[in-house]
Amino acid sequence: MEGLLNAAVVMANFVIVPATAYGAQLALGALGVTLIFGILRFSNFAHGDTMAFGAAITILGVWALQGAGVSLFPVPTAILALPFGILATALLLLATDRGVYRFYRRQKANPIILVIVSIGVMFIMNGLVRFVIGTEEIRFDDGARFLVDVRGFREATGLAEGLAIRTAQVTTFLTAIVFVAALFWFLNRTRTGKSMRAFSDNEDLALLSGIDPERVVRVTWVIAAALAATAGVLYGLDKSFWPTTYFQLLLPIFAAAVVGGLGSPLGAIAGGFLVAFSEISVTYAFRRALGHLLPPDWMPAGLVQLLSTDYKFAVSFVILVIVLLFKPTGLFRGTSS
Amino acid sequence: MKKTLLATTAALVVSAAAVQAQEVKIGILLGFTGPLESLVMHMAPGAELAIAEINASGAFGLGTLATVNGDTGCIDAPLATASAERLITAERVAGIVGGDCSGVTGAALQNVARPNGVVMVSPSATSPALSTVETDGYFYRTAPSDARQGVVMAENILDRGIKSVAVTYTNNDYGKGLADSFAAAYAERGGTVTINAAHEDGKADYTAEVGALAAAGGDALVVAGYIGQGGSGILRASLDTGAFDTFVFPDGMVGQELEANFGPEINGSFGQNPASAGEGAGIFHGMATAGGFDGTSPFSAESYDAAALIVLAMQAAGSTDPKVYKDKILDVANGPGERILPGELAKALEILKAGGEVDYDGATGVELVNGREAAGSYREIEFVDGKLSVIRFR
Lengths: 337, 394
Description:
The complex is a heterodimer. Chain A is mainly α. Chain A has 13 helices and two strands; from the N terminus they run ααααβαβαααααααα. A two-stranded antiparallel ribbon of chain A has the order 1-2. Chain A is globular and about 70 Å long. Chains A and B meet through α1, α5, α9 and α12 of A and β7, α7 and α8 of B.
């Protein structure tokens, strides 16, 4: 019995808790991607660097608040600074839309052209972020570090294995729930939200019924900015902020959005968690967990690891390929990608 | 009148030639451009300091020394080869301080220095591969081989009674070389390496890597990475998940950032980095500061020693011909004889001129092993009360 508990704790410590936090971050990112795909009808490659920008501005806000002596302890100050990050990101995205995307929209450009344009925007944003905050690693998690720490857990339960749950992980999960709930309420209950869904379902019909397309586009960018900045801050809070890592997040985020079905918000959330859990469990070495379950003689000599951690990104690729081959519309029947 | 003029001119030409013959050129072949330029700006002055000290003393009996620079680009083998070619065939240097990075050093040695018979003394090439290449006695280094640190680290860990460790290394030549040499030395002395896994730098999250390390187990985790890069992330994730309590830090991880970012969390963790103990280092740091550069910068002291060794060997052999003085380098470096510290080069030259013997210790406690390279002295550190404390030198 104790072996079973120990194995469960090891799995929770190394797989379930980190994957849940990571999944929440991916879900928020994928929501932004899927929303832009649904309304503006192109895959926004600049989304990763939009997240980095939101996180960078929020970090500046954190420093300002710390300088002024404001603190939310044990909650990280970043939560207080997040609105600044969202505001700045929204302004940036609206300016980008006005300066870049609107031109192509009026020309009724092919979606693939918009995708390529977004790659250009991505490079510019990437440079902008480095210009604003530098290229060094930044840790801005100033709250209480642990909700449950390893030593405390061991002493409290008497088990051999320990469990750590960090404040940042809990903050991530709760913030994600709040944002997702707010988004769904907005899309399903408000007039603007309904007009957005109408626009997404059938653009011509929406125009005929008097919906202002430019307004829908603006609202979409603002919501995407909020989602991106939040996802960026939560990722940086949970792990650490490197301006370059957000670009690498694009792949899992797109994998999550595609798995769920592009354009489907519910699918983006499910996809986020699916990708996160696959990535972590496929590259996790199960030897230690098995060690608690099996008799000592049966203890495997190897690590019982399907793929080395170096192949973490390959997992997203494989998921993408499988979905596109067998169920191109994704789990929740989004647009065929 | 015309004749006198002619004679004077002729005399002048002759004496000019004589003066020129007495100028002994030493090449400084380092990466003045490229990834190591921030270190080279303190290495080249180290070598020049030794040359200037000797010139000022006037005790060098074979002429006046001059330095000529050549660029290696640190990772640019064709550039390094061309620079070495220029130093040797056009500038006619009698010896070379350099190269800096291991790859270009090997290229310059095999393509130019060895065929032409010119001595190279590298202050900073640390690749274990340079311990075994053919050199015909033309290659020495005042920096220790990375393999040496693997041995020192293995002894350090076993002396503390830790019999099994997990190893993670940064995925490049440095990390892999160090991890492999450590694993071999540790296993040879009876320790068990449970896993030897790479990690990539520049990622935000290392939980998955630490998960694999934790699954393999071990009493301590050896982090052969960089403190400003993935090494920090590995450390953070290990502490957060409680995977390891004790860590072993090789040179890439030893830094003040450990104290600032982790402090008391890593109490009891230990490590080692190459550092020279004793008076030699202290004297050199003072001389460097007076000379306007940072003597504590890595390989700066080694550069001083490399230049000094070349000139002392020339004096001992009574010749600036590399084919002759190359055999004297080990003699002046390892003794027996009078112990020589930085700033005492004049004394050493006088002793050698009088036919005596010296044991050059210099800024880094020079002791050449394996017929070509520094044994290296390592500073053993440990975290006590969240502070990086030096335990001893080994």
